User: Fold this.
Amino acid sequence: MAQADIGYALVTGASAGIGQATARILARQGVTVYAAARRSGPLEELAREAAGIRPIALDVTSDESMRAAMARIESDGARIDLLVNNAGFGQMGAVEDVSVEKLRYQFEVNVFGAVRAIQAVLPGMRARRSGRIVNVSSPAGVVPMPFGGAYCASKAALESLTAALRLEVRDFGIHCILVRPGAIRTEFQEVARDGTTAFRESSPYAGRYGSVERLFDQFSKRGSPPEPVGEGIVRAALAASPPHEINVPFDAKATVALSTVLPSVARDGIFRFALNRLG
Assistant:
């Protein structure tokens, strides 16, 4: 199968999970990968394991950090042909419980961080009239979950931005791909759960948080490793004619497909049943 000519890639959130798996798989395909994250230790270890990976410190919430990362790439004589916007996190919490500050930070990482990276690489891609941008979303971007409103809202915003961007840059030879991973065995659940510590005991929804945690645990136990998602990202990114979006693995495909046929009252009923069953 014909593949796009991708020499250099920037993968954010590459210290673990989907980002790390994607970086490894791209490197095996002969792509030089700038593996970016705030935590340098895992990146150095990744670079020792896989040839072709160059660790780079990057905090996607910082303009200064983004400028420094791009300056480092330029000093290497490299150019970014592929951007994988994977950096992100989730937090649990009722809409009433999650402070505006926490909601703002959710968007700062999951949405504004992606936009920072996009705006950093687009001038070079436009000049070359080629490039690929992959934004990692979630089925939660189309199927909002109770007690996950902040995360779901950030992914819904990323979905809309990706759709708009795809139309804006197509005439410059740049392709945008939206990826919705299903339940994956990563640190996501632990991070999301830890965020409720400050308010859960005093919350009017305190009785529900245990049910939500058990629901998350069920997703985690049944989740797949991150490698299949990384493989899906790489296939789509390197394809001669890349798809607009992919849902991977099967549970993501099923969730997104059902969301298009089930009315909201039915989706609400499913969530209520699951929470009551685990209560």
Notes: The chain has a mean pLDDT of 91. Residues 8-278 form a domain with the Rossmann fold fold (CATH 3.40.50.720).
